[in-house]
Amino acid sequence: MDTIKPCPPIADTFAKRYMWWTNLTPSWRAAFQQVLSIHGSSPSDEELCRIWQAPALRFAGPRAMYPNMNFELTDCSGLAGLTNLDILVVINHRVESIAELSTLTDLKGLFVNNNALTSLAGIESMSQLEQLYAHINKLQSLTPVRKLTRLRELYVSFNALNSLEGLTSSHTKQLKRLVCLPNDELPDREVIRVEQRLGIRCQRG
């Protein structure tokens, strides 16, 4: 059985946790209330600890196959600093940036598909990341994944990619599933380059 991690230093007292809650945007307070079944405007300290100690959180918007929210988020501000997370799911929303997730350096799985992301900036420090699902967005570059050499699964189909720069020979051993097709702007020569030079098969989603 996994040991529950303590709250990180930025939330290691009730006063800090409560201040964090009051500083959340109304959308993010509502998101946590819906996802974690928190009743009332002021959660208990036990409920706040549940957020900060959670190893996994899932926020699925109303368009998701199995939604647990009735509205769409537009940012990731409420997740900044939740460093105990191993798995994070923020799908079927209108999120345009994940830069606010840059402190989540222990993430192993990040699922941000079906959003409005134009960039993956913010993931560069997630050196433990093994799964990245970012299909159905507006991504133009994979450069931020350059140092994420533990990636086993990368889903980036249905974006605006015109290059697969960012993938290197350092990814070849671990990356077993690269789903990057279709991408209407991605030239065939780029697919061939990755398959022949890197030995990574470009799969269709």
TrEMBL record:
<dbReference type="InterPro" id="IPR001611">
    <property type="entry name" value="Leu-rich_rpt"/>
</dbReference>
<dbReference type="InterPro" id="IPR032675">
    <property type="entry name" value="LRR_dom_sf"/>
</dbReference>
<keyword id="KW-0433">Leucine-rich repeat</keyword>
<protein>
    <recommendedName>
        <fullName>Leucine-rich repeat domain-containing protein</fullName>
    </recommendedName>
</protein>
<keyword id="KW-0677">Repeat</keyword>
<dbReference type="InterPro" id="IPR050836">
    <property type="entry name" value="SDS22/Internalin_LRR"/>
</dbReference>
